[in-house]
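Table S2 (text version). Query chain:
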Amino acid sequence: MLKSQPCLIVIFLMYASGVFAQKLNGRLIHNRIDKGFEALVIYDYFKAKRKFEYSSQRYKKLADFGLALIYYRTDNPFSQIDSAYSHITRCEKIPYNQNKKLQKKLLKWHISNDSIQILKEAIEHRAFLNAVQKNTILEYENYIQNYTASKWLNEAESRRNALAFRNALELNTYVAYRNFITKYPDALEIPIAKDKYEFCLFKESTNSNTIDAYRKFIGTYPKSPFKLVAEDSIYALSTQSKTVEAYYTFIKQNPESSHINDAWKKIYLGSKNDYSLGFYENFIKKYPDYPFKEALKREIQLAQVELYIVRDNNLFGAVSKTGNLLIPFAFESIDEFSEGLALVTQNGKYGYINKSGKTVIPIVYDEAESFREGIAIVKREQKYGAINKVGDLVIPLQYEELGDSHDSLLMVKSNQQYGFINQKNKLIIPYSWDNVYDFNEGLAPVEKQEKQGYINKNGALVIPLKYDWVESFNNNIARVQINELYGLINIEGDSLLPCIYDVISKFSEGLALVVKDDKCGYINQAGKIVIPLQYDYKSENEIFGLFSNGYAKVVKRNKKGFIDKNGKIVIPLEYADVNMISEGLFPVKKKSKWGYADINNKIQIKPEFEKAEPFSQGRAKVIVKGKSGFIDLKGKIVIEPRFDLAQNFEKEGALVMKDGKYGLINTSGTLIFPMEYDKIQFLGNGVVILRKNGKNALYSNTYLRFIFKERDF
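Corresponding structure-token output:
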């Protein structure tokens, strides 16, 4: 910002003019100096200039002042600001004590140090304003060179520097910034100029974006602030494929890089890790120079640890089977571990941790799925993508819909059409389908105009779009539907069964239930009917009519029995109901009572119970007078029917309930846990979860103690 011209200049000019006019009315001293000032008062600049120029050396201080004033003023043809400055600086330097006559003249015309300084500052200021008006580096340079004592010198330098820096910005080359830094080392813009110099030097030296260019830059400018950027670029270019082989080659070729540890990490995470000791041994054998062997061994050992997710104070963590807290209570949720990592949430965001509780992929995603085939689907800002186990986005966040990886292909959606990409985000099957389903056994169901068929992994339609519904292949067989009737095809698209059946169940133990006109039978995996459609169809057949342990329940004229896989009746169709064989006995119902028959249909336990379940661990649940108890294999009641509900025995015990509270009993009927819990659940490996008053605890049957209790349990 320009500074205002000092008001003292205006005062001086008005005062000087008044003095001159006053002297004209008094006694005049007729010498050149006096006549020069007299002429100046009446604006006779020609005469004044001539008188001052030819004045004696004795009055040179007065003459220079007068000439400075003439050259300063703009109302005469002699106006020239540099000449004005030359005379006023000379005037300033001439001493006052030359002689008494000079002092008298100076006093007479009121010329003093103050008036000289006022005029000098006015000249300096006008010269500065002239430079500002022209606003060129040359003008500012001239001002700085000529007006070395000016109070506007710093501002002139700042303006010159700003112009020079703007010129450097327009060129935007490292040479331009280097020249600016060299020429104007004290400029305020120097820090910015240095930053831009370094940036341009880096960009211009590496504009080819090749590994060799970045290596040469690091060798030539080892202290550059962009050395790490160059290393980043070498790393990125060397590992574009993101394969384990690429990372290992990078390590061999760049042993001093700051990315070595990261490359090793990605080699480890990119390897097919089943978290077994065998993986550890093979990994170290393949990469003997791996620098974190002990850490890897600890992680493999940790992976073998069984973890149980627990909650405390509304935050989740995990404990080992011995009760050690391995993952702290720091998460709003924790999913089960998949491929070595678990999905967690914090503050409504999703990320991933390992079994030590360490966050290995930042908790930044709006949605996320567990890992499958080495990648996981994630979502941010309404778009889906996929990450690998290192956290790299292997599929950018650009899709409106994205499916899990199956057979290394992922379903994607764009503009209401579906296609498939691979794990490297390459579009393998174009967006040309109204709907698609996951690949399985090399084929995927697809739909267009409400008709379905199958494509292969190249996108070729290998089974025509002629079905109303199809399912994914399983063991080279799939069910299909036309006009609400079901058939069966093989993976070549050949019809194994025509679409004439009302129901075809899923295969169980190699056989599937088929239904037509309310009659059911069984087919094998070749589509051949091996048990004729001679039994009555009930909706329950789709569950209880499937083969289990070599037998299937069948119905005819509301009487039920069992057949084997050859269609032979092993339990005659003479019972009101039957249940699956277990420990050599079938629960059977005659009239309104349940008992048990053996494989020869001999009644071993007479029907006297309201309900009877299959045996488990030598005990079977029965209901007597609306209460549940247990009998042994001889039919003797060993646990009195006193419970409102009971479940079959598992190795941890049997869950029982009375008056809305649950307990756990052993095969003798002794309470393992008293009847005071809101919920009891078996987690496996002898661990039981107990819930009471909204709080949970874990009990280990192996260690016969609680391994975790939630606060205030």
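Notes on Table S2: The chain is about 30% helix and 35% strand. The CA atoms of residues 428 and 606 lie 65 Å apart.
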